[in-house]
Amino acid sequence: MDPALLKERELFKKRALTTPTVERKKTDSRPEPTRDDSKRFKSSSSSTPKLDINTYKTATGSSQYRFGVLAKIVKHMRKRHQEGETYPLTLEEILDETNQLDVGNKVKQWLQTEALVDNPKIEVTSDGKFLFKAPYKLKDRKSLLKLLKQQDLKGLGGVLLDDVQESLPHCEKALKILQNQNEIIFITRPIDKKKVLFYNDRTATLPIDEEFQKLWRSVAVDAMDDAKIDEYLEKQGIRSMQDHGPKKPIAPKRHKTSQRKKTFKKPRDNEHLADVLETYSDNTLTQKNSV
Q1: Cα–Cα–Cα angle for 59, 64, 68, nearest 5°?
Q2: pLDDT mean by block of 10 residues, the chain; 291 residues
Q3: How far is CA 165 from CA 29, 83, 119, 143, in A?
Q4: Rounded Cα–Cα distance for residues 100 and 88 (Å)
Q5: Axis crossing angle, helix 141-153 with helix 171-180, rounded to the nearest 10
Q6: Which parts of 114-221 are beta strand (E)?
Q7: Per-residue pLDDT tens for 149-202?
Q8: How far apart are CA 12 and CA 9, in angstroms?
């Protein structure tokens, strides 16, 4: 290669290294946002709903929250009735006493028009207020004793203790006084172990010999059914229980239908005029022949 060209090439490299260079940045090809675009962005961001606790509570799928509010109200109304506060309350007063004033409007509307109106434990007054609906209308122990007497006279049996506790204010105190006066009897139901309250009719009490009581209590028949009791009595030679107890219904016997063919019978209305008809027919025939 020509040495002169190589020399010029080296000089060109030196000049290129000594001279400073400015690098241009790549410009953004996107257009600058206009006023209309900024307005659209602001409107779209403002249209998105903000997360609020009230809107969250009243949103769809919050049925569990609704029924939780209802259950708290019913529990509070029962408690205040048992404490003797039997005057009605408005919905706002109920929500204030249960510390639920942050309930949304949709839940309030649901409580006012559907939930509390249709609830079997809540009674609505004529002026739109609410109070607890007890199974029995009892004010004091005298009204409870009157109810038990009516149940006994009509043969309706006893009253569940749970219903009495819901209905009678200050129930425990009244039951303790009646029990000390020997006016009531508690019996535990063997099916669900619930206590039943009965009126103690002291006029029907009879003196029973102690020996008979001991014999009665010595025989345990809790784990025996009617068939085993009948078998035991039969072994002991006692057959007086055979005619007692519920009898099984006997199915009626069905009559067999006869397979004979039905014969049509002529009417017998004019049998007593048979002779007259025969003579009449004979006379008409002779008259025709003579003609």
Answers
A1: 115
A2: 75 75 57 57 50 46 84 93 90 92 90 91 91 90 91 89 91 90 89 90 81 83 76 78 58 66 60 59 54 50
A3: 82, 11, 19, 13
A4: 18
A5: 60
A6: 122-124, 130-132, 159-160, 184-188, 195-199
A7: 999 888 888 899 999 999 999 899 999 999 888 899 999 988 888 999 999 888
A8: 5
